[in-house]
Amino acid sequence: MTSIKMALGAGVAASVLAQPLYAAEIEARSRIDAVAVYPDAAIVTRTLDVDLPQGESVLVFRGLPLAIDPASLRVEGRATGGLTLGAVDSRLRPVDPQKVASETEAQLKPLREERERMTATIDALEGRKAMIKRFGQTGPARGDKDGGLEIAQWSAAWDAVGAGFAKVNDELRLARASLVEVDAKIKAIEAADTARRSRTAPEREFTVTLTADAPVKGALTVSYRVGNASWQPAYDARLTMGEAGRATGLTLVRRALVTQRTGEDWTGVTLSLSTVRAARGTQAPEVAPQRVGYLEAVVLGAPPMLADAPAPKTMMRAAEAPATGAAPPDVALKVAATVLETNGYQATFRIPGSLTVPTDGTQKSFIIQTRELQPDIVVKAAPALDPTAYLEASFANDADSPLLGGMVSLIRDGAFIGRGQVAFTPPGEKVALGFGADDRVTVTRVPVRRRETEPGLLGSNKTDTREFRISVKNLHDFPVKAVIVDQMPYSEAANLVVEPLSTNTPPTEKTVKDRRGVMSWIYDLKPKEGRDILLGYRLRWPSDRELTFERMPIPR
Predict the structure, then answer these.
(1) What pLDDT is stored for residue 188 in this prediction?
(2) Higher model confidence: residue 317 or residue 187?
């Protein structure tokens, strides 16, 4: 077969169709075959078979989403003979009210017939139930004019009445449930019809012109980018602790939460997930020169100055748009057949099987990866903020793909601990997850001394000395590694001095994660062993100034 291909970009024309279709136009009966979902968009691929006569033909793709980017349209294919791809037009067609009404009536007609049938069935069952009830009320002794049933026959009569009641009640229950279901479908179609009739937005159509040297058959694929579709990561982390406080394993389940409101259902498609943001900018911004000068004072009565030029408008990238809340997962797939494809710039997960994602915003959850890890376990506390010691498991991301930022459900020894957050972690970087409090490691932080001095006759500075004692103790019958994180303030003013005390316990790590003033002490504590940490500092500043302590944002 002959290969045909056409990449369509800025040359795609957009117009509003206000005239009848040309005689040579053929409606393209295509179906969605594959969808590649990005964190902020999706690439939809449609396929169709063509059987074209000699000469020029125009394929019309109707009812496509309005959110399609016309510049992203691509057409490829193969044919049994010479076939040339020509012009491609994007056009908008107003919604035809008569067409909408006929389509709605075609959907409602069989449902209304089914409703009439179910209503008649329920009426018949109600009549049968009333007859059984009247028979039961007459009593066995008054069953007929000859004196009724013999006493030995009473039991059989009661059983027959009871069995009849049970059967007719079951049939009524099923019939009423079916009627409720039919009524719900009718209401849904009528509501959709009302919404569709009230829409003023037209439908989008694409036309593709093809010229055949002779009658040909072939297959075409049409792909386009569409907004209102996304996926976001979610994780399950299951930590199993064995004897002597050692972790026997950490299972990290990686999920993808897919949602879309593109205007067309993805039914029975091949789904893939990419880590690339399709709607992000394509190159770095230009940096303008910056001039510094003196601030000129405004003098009253001076001649008016020229108005400042308007500030440049800024655009919010799609990656900075607010994210919607995630609904609970509702679908899970096996992980074994998931295929991960990576290169230097992106990772793509190909989900096995044929999948369906409706256009109503329903969130679908797919398991894309499961990893068994051997984490490092520590007990960590920041007693200046919270004296609780927390169990923390950390591991290196040794996978070929990055871990995208998302929520993680934390489970320790089969018990749900809570939810946390996984930050964006490229391959080779470390991930730390908290798994709840360890009540058998106690941590306290108490002030030991505070002394303030006023300026003397020969000095003009104030001083403030503060000292704390931090105590940590392991109450387990096995050793643990404890990490205590604390801080002392820092100053960027030349006349405000912060001096650490000579009695301080030297920290294991003087600067934690490049955060100024934040330090940590790391101890391997034996069973029942405790340690004390002394932390203090002296502030010196001019007496005519007042101090303020400002908590700085944590760098991410």
Answers:
(1) 82
(2) 187
Which of 86-90, 242-246, 335-339 comes out lowest in average pLDDT? 335-339
What Å distances lie between residue 176 and 107, 164, 370, 420, CA to CA? 21, 18, 45, 46
Q: What pLDDT was estimated at residue 480? A: 93
The domain segmentation of the chain, as residue ranges, is 2-94+202-226, 98-198, 229-277+325-437, 441-542
Q: Is a pLDDT exceeding 60 seen at residue 125?
A: yes
pLDDT tens digits for 145-168? Answer: 555 556 666 677 767 777 777 888
Burial of 265 (0-12, 13-18, 19+ CB in 10 A): middle
d(CA 508, CA 452): 30
The answer to whether 209 and 220 have CB atoms below 8 angstroms apart is no
CA gap 195, 104 in Å, rounded: 12
Q: What is the pTM of this model?
A: 0.60
CA 79, 84, 87 angle in degrees (round to 5)? 130
Residue 246 identity (one-letter amino acid) = R
Amino acid present at 207: T
Vertex 455, ends 454 and 456: CA angle to 5°?
A: 115
Instruction: Give phi and psi for 251, each to the nearest 5.
Output: -100, 120
